[in-house]
Amino acid sequence: MGSRGVQAALVIVVLVFGVLAALVVGGGRKHDTANNPNAVATPSIDVSPTPSPSAAASPSPSASPSAAPSPSPAATEAPTAAPQPTQSSQPVASGPAAYPAQVKAGSSYGYTGPRAYVAHATDSVDSGSSACAGINESTQAFPSGYEGVFYVGVVFPDGNILSAGYIRTAAGRKDFASFQNASGSTRNGVQGADPGAGSHTYCVTHTASGWSMTDDGKEIYASSAEGATGVGGATVKFDSDVQAIGSPAAASFTFVIPGFHDITVGGQPPHQLRGSNFYS
Rounded distance, CA 148 to CA 163, Å? Predict the structure, then answer.
């Protein structure tokens, strides 16, 4: 065979071999994809031209629901100020009142008569059914025509006055008690016996039958002429006076206060004792 024949034969062999190889390889790929569950298939890509879809009209967006109006906050009411307690023009002290000089034993005042002179302490804030005080004995010798009067008195809102105490004159000492109306035109009462030496407790007390004035619990005088049933709203006085009897000659002397002790209003120490002294 010549060289050309050999070359042609080789070309034929190569072609045949290539065809066989292609067949073997193609059959192997098909088998792997069909029978191997773990094989990953290559997706086919469609290269045919796809007409652009006409843009679908966007649906009109539904109107977003209008937000519900947030409720306006409830109007805040201005807080009502807590009612303030009414202030008393005469506030009550938190404890018992101190005794002013006008009721203390030994206090003294210059006096020129025949005018009346008063040294007292008053309480107009306490209440209860009684007013009481111990009153020391006065040993002062008063000039002729003058007397010392020492008592517990209650001046009621209607102007009536109830009182209990004792009178000291040049002749000696006597208990007394009285009722006096607002104008002073009516004055009822009695002068009792000498109460005896020393201090005595005098009271003006409301009872079931009216008002009773007593010395150490012994009644001096009683009256139903005052309709009040207690001393609340009244002015209670713890009083030392110099008074003229008739029309005496003018006189000047020192008036000495015998002194009050154990003062009570409604059975309790008073919360107010305001002292004053003056000619009346």
Answer: 15
Residue 127 structure tokens: 């209440």
pTM of the model: 0.68
pLDDT in tens, 123-143: 999 999 999 999 999 999 999
CA 115 – CA 189 distance, rounded (Å)? 23
Contacts for 171-178 with beta carbons within 8 Å, 24 or more apart? 173/137, 173/138, 175/200, 175/215, 175/220, 176/149, 176/151, 176/220, 177/213, 177/220, 177/221, 178/213, 178/221
DSSP 54-107: PPPPPPPPPPPPPPPPPPPPPPPPPPPPPPPPPPPSSPPPSSPPPPPGGGSTT-
Give the tokens for residue 177: 């008690």
Q: Which residues of the chain have pLDDT under 50?
A: 1-90
Query: CB–CB of 131/231 below 8 Å?
Result: yes
Q: How many CB atoms lie within 10 A of CB 185?
A: 7
DSSP class of 145: T
What Cα–Cα distance (Å) separates residue 252 from each residue in 84, 114, 171, 259? 53, 9, 19, 21
pLDDT at residue 92 in the model: 54
Q: If DSSP codes are grouped into helix, strand and coil, which group holds residue 229?
A: coil
Q: Of 155, 202, 144, 199, which is closest to residue 176 (Cα–Cα)?
A: 202
201-230 tens-digit pLDDT: 999 999 999 999 999 999 999 999 999 999
- Residue 187 CB-density burial (10 A; 0-12 exposed, 13-18 middle, 19+ buried): exposed
Please, are residues 272 and 126 in contact by the beta-carbon 8 Å criterion? yes
Instruction: Return d(Cα 149, Cα 28) in angstroms, integer.
Output: 149
Q: Are 165 and 258 in contact (CB under 8 A)?
A: no
